[in-house]
Amino acid sequence: MLIATIDAGTSNTRVYLWQDTTILAEAQMPIGVRHTAIDRHNKKLTAAVRDTLREAARKAGVTVDEIACILGAGMLTSNVGLKEIPHLAAPISLDALSHAIVPCHLPEICPQVIHLIPGIKNMNDMSFTDETIGHMDIMRGEETEAAAILQCFPSVEHMVLILPGSHNKYIAVSNGDTICGCLTTLAGELLHAMTFDTILASSTAQSYAEHYDAEAFQRGVVCRRQSGFGHAAFMARILDLFHEATPNVVQNYLLGILLADDLIALRKSHLFPNLSEAVFIIAGNPLMQAAYKTLLASENYSTRSLDQDTMCALSGRGAIALARRASLFREEYA
To answer: Can you give the pLDDT at residue 330?
Structure first.
């Protein structure tokens, strides 16, 4: 059975074409929802989804008309996406999420229905007050990645899923398949800003770390705890000037500051009252996984890492898992 999964973010649109659960082809375009926000219409995004879908089909040697099921996730369901679909309120099980998938007819893209997966928010609007504003958070796309991850750990009940990126996402999971909400930080964007757009750019050589340095990372963790974020960040320049730290050391040090700051936020969040009882499931590249393992092991937290093969097309794998729960596929595949 031919399946297409579409994922759009801020800057990119990506399509995978699958034969059941095997990837046949991939295509992407550097157009995302930021173009909708800038242009105040979604014509570029619509064209990007259409053309990327056609390109993936061409690479697989098929036509778009031959695709049996098309699934969409991520920012496609936002107010700057293809069709705005309200966030679902957590806690929500994967079964409930799967049955909230919305079929949309978008003939300007393809003749088939596109099944769009909603995002999740931490609470319903009635619960949102001045007192609870700090409890609110949102995700679009990460809930679909979570569906893929949870398939890999069926025996674990309480988890914190770690999804690093421009915005680090920490997703609370209970009972093995219920998403309780998330906590988001700007860690990825802050690392980019410090690396390229501050006085620290000379210390980082305007490049990210090439390999993991546990000592430098741990130094950043300790400095953040002792000195606060701002001073700890400036200390990267001191390490460069007076300690002859290499750009790779400085980058690992900055990563330590940022992830230590994230952990402080996790400990203060109402979503994660019993972190010591949860298993942290770590996504990301090998360097990021090693950094999180160092941070969490120093606090005696339990961790597991996703292998790199599993992380390939994570959103697509999750979309297919949710579609199967919703019985969107023919009987011979489901």
So the answer is: 66
